[in-house]
Write a structure and sequence with these properties.
Strand order of the largest sheet: 3-4-2-1-5-7-8-6
Helix content: 40-55%
Strand content: 15-25%
Largest sheet: 8 strands, mixed
Structural class: alpha/beta
Distance between the termini: 11 Å
Radius of gyration: 17 Å
């Protein structure tokens, strides 16, 4: 059995580098392609949850600031401006396919409190009842801890969300094809690792590296997300976001990117 072909509840994490150009302005062409694929997955009967980065990056683009600021108030201001823009675009694009989206902003204190976490889960369940697509982000505007990457960027948040909503699979869209034996941007001999069943020191060494200029994530945070997901029984895939249609292949059972298997599998 292929867990992706059988998956019903799917979490998809979309990073800043997927949504924006280096300038911070929204990459509308890629977002349009991405939303079309996600709409197809939704129409096929899957329950879809999107964990999105990009609020700060988009906000900086609107503010015409080229580099991510270091002070917290500027980041929070950028998040406040960018989140509005981001949700407007998601809503507009999904509406073209007659699909409804809902904004869910989370902070770590909500996740760590059992009563409040239960309220979050109930909200997700009700949104699924209404056939909405929850779009989740950290509440960077008010939460200093999150803006300083307490969650480990949205990679970790996506794994936590996958756990608490009982997702079948998690898909993290990245700016490379998956996990390599070395940084493929620096080492021409780097090889793609197709399947991971155990996260050991060799895998950790392969995951070392930095994130994009406007984001804060990197392969190391994706590996951390994989650990959380696998421990929760959720298989995870890292695939290249530059070709959103790769998700079709992934959910058709083809080998795409790097798959972290929560259960033992037969090749």
């Amino acid at each position: 059995m292929n867990v992706f072909t059988e998956a019903k509840r799917v979490v998809v994490k979309i990073g800043t580098s997927t949504l924006t150009y280096e300038t911070g302005h929204v990459n509308l062409r890629r977002m349009e392609q991405l939303v079309k694929v996600l709409a197809e997955l939704k129409n096929s009967g899957k329950e879809l949850i999107i964990v999105t980065s990009g609020a700060i990056g988009v906000g900086l683009g609107r503010m015409r600031i080229k580099e991510r600021p270091k002070d917290i108030p500027s980041k929070q201001a950028a998040a406040a401006i960018g989140q509005c823009e981001l949700m407007y675009i998601y809503d507009k694009l999904f509406s073209e396919y007659n699909l409804m989206v809902a904004q869910v902003l989370l902070t770590r204190d909500v996740i760590e409190d059992e009563r409040r976490k239960a309220n979050v889960v109930n909200t997700f369940d009700k949104l699924f009842d209404y056939d909405a697509i929850p779009i989740v982000n950290e509440n960077d505007t008010v939460a200093v801890e999150e803006i300083e990457a307490t969650f480990g960027e949205n990679d970790t948040l996506s794994a936590i969300v996958a756990d608490i909503v009982g997702a079948d699979v998690l898909v993290i869209l990245s700016d490379i094809d998956g996990l390599y034996t070395a940084d493929p941007k620096k080492d021409p001999n780097a090889r793609l690792i197709s399947d991971v069943t155990e996260i050991n020191e060799k895998i950790r060494e392969a995951a070392s590296g930095a994130g994009s200029k406007l984001g804060t994530g990197g392969m190391a945070t994706k590996l951390h997300a994989a650990e959380i997901a696998m421990n929760a029984g959720v298989s995870m895939a890292i695939i290249n976001s530059y070709n959103p249609e790769l998700m079709y292949k992934l959910f058709d059972g083809e080998q795409v990117g790097t798959v972290f298997h929560a259960e033992k599998f037969e090749k």
